[in-house]
Amino acid sequence: MLIDAFDRKIDYIRLSVTDRCDFRCVYCMSEDMTFMPRAQVLTLEELTEIGTAFVELGVSKIRVTGGEPLVRKGVTQVFKQLGKLPLKELTLTTNGSQLPKYAAELKAAGVKRINISLDTLNPAKFRELTRTGELQQVLDGIKAAQDVGFERIKLNAVILKNRNAVEVPELVQFVLDNHLDISFIEEMPLGSIVEHSRALEFCSSADLRDIIGPKFKLEPLQAQTAGPSRYWQVPGYHSRIGFISPHSENFCASCNRVRVSAEGKLLLCLGNEHAADLKAILRAHPGDRERLKATIVQAITIKPERHHFDLNSEPQIVRFMSSTGG
Ligand code: SAM
Ligand code: SF4
């Protein structure tokens, strides 16, 4: 069976394995964020069961995310189980801090591509943006991932106009020198933050290309990928320079993805509250995969057609990206 929303086959899920994180990035969570009690979070077995149900429904790509997926105790068990499913892609989004410990195991479990978040190469700025992180941890994580030989490693950088926009050319140089890809992301208004104004910090992808332009020649890539990033290349280099532009270049029309939060909510859209409670089904009817699949199929029919992010009003979505599963 295939699951469709509008004319799009849903073949990609983001599975959040925890809402916890060792960093507290300023755009992603508040300084005093409290995490969910353990009993509310899906167990490792439930995570695998949900992944399996989606694959039986035709999903061929799973990205494991969080919170920080690699701080979840026993998480490699989930990768090992998901790695046995007939998937085209098993991928991971991580802040990189635990990669020196887990890179080899992840590769062995079948993870081929990983995304690592890195917003700046300046150690003081890194500490300011992540509140608790050390730049060197992430640089070591990138190195560990390269050493075990993942097919592609992509950096994700959320760019804030007055905080790290000036560092964008340096990040471009870093990915070119290290044979990495990068996506620059416009900040999304998820959850309420007090440290900066999302409207004042907004930096559009077009503005970023203007910042990069004088230093690097950017040519649009002919063969784009199916995801939300629009890619460019610097002639003579393999690195892909991507831009994810939820505000300035809305990509809802081609969205073929849904998310499962760490507490088992099937979220149909990042920018809307439409959701179904998969954990409730799993716990009320353990082992009943057909019922789980029927719930998923039914939920997909309410996938909204687009988000309506508005930088100037209070966030309409009170969930932070870390609890949604970014
Ligand atoms: N902890 C992992 C990490 O940082 O890569 C995985 C989870 S994190 C929520 C996934 C992605 O969401 C990261 O690339 C992060 O930069 C991005 N993100 C978090 N909050 C965001 C926001 N408000 N707007 C845009 N992207 C955001
Ligand atoms: Fe943690 Fe990732 Fe959110 Fe940063 S973006 S606080 S690393 S979940």
Commentary on this structure:
Catalyzes the cyclization of GTP to (8S)-3',8-cyclo-7,8-dihydroguanosine 5'-triphosphate. Its EC number is 4.1.99.22. Belongs to the radical SAM superfamily. MoaA family. It is an enzyme of class 4 (lyase). It is a single chain. The chain is an alpha/beta fold. It has one domain (3-324): Aldolase class I (TIM Barrel, Alpha-Beta Barrel). The chain has helices at residues 44-56, 75-83, 99-109, 123-130, 135-148, 168-177, 198-201, 205-212, 278-284, 289-300, 321-324, and strands at residues 4-5, 8-9, 12-16, 61-65, 89-94, 113-117, 152-159, 181-186, 219-220, 230-233, 240-244, 257-260, 265-267, 275-277. The strands form 2 sheets. Strands 9-10-11-8-7-6-5-4-3-12-13-14 form a 12-stranded mixed β-sheet. The mean pLDDT is 89. It binds S-adenosylmethionine and iron/sulfur cluster (SF4). Iron/sulfur cluster binds next to α11.
Strand and helix map with partners:
Elements: E1 4-5, E2 8-9, E3 12-16, H1 44-56, E4 61-65, H2 75-83, E5 89-94, H3 99-109, E6 113-117, H4 123-130, H5 135-148, E7 152-159, H6 168-177, E8 181-186, H7 198-201, H8 205-212, E9 219-220, E10 230-233, E11 240-244, E12 257-260, E13 265-267, E14 275-277, H9 278-284, H10 289-300, H11 321-324
Parallel strand pairs: 3-4, 3-12, 4-5, 5-6, 6-7, 7-8, 8-11
Antiparallel strand pairs: 1-2, 9-10, 10-11, 12-13, 13-14
Helix pairs in contact: 1-2, 1-10, 2-3, 3-5
The protein binds S-adenosylmethionine and iron/sulfur cluster.
Iron/sulfur cluster (SF4) is lined by residues 21, 23-25, 28-29, 66-68, 95, 117, 321-322.
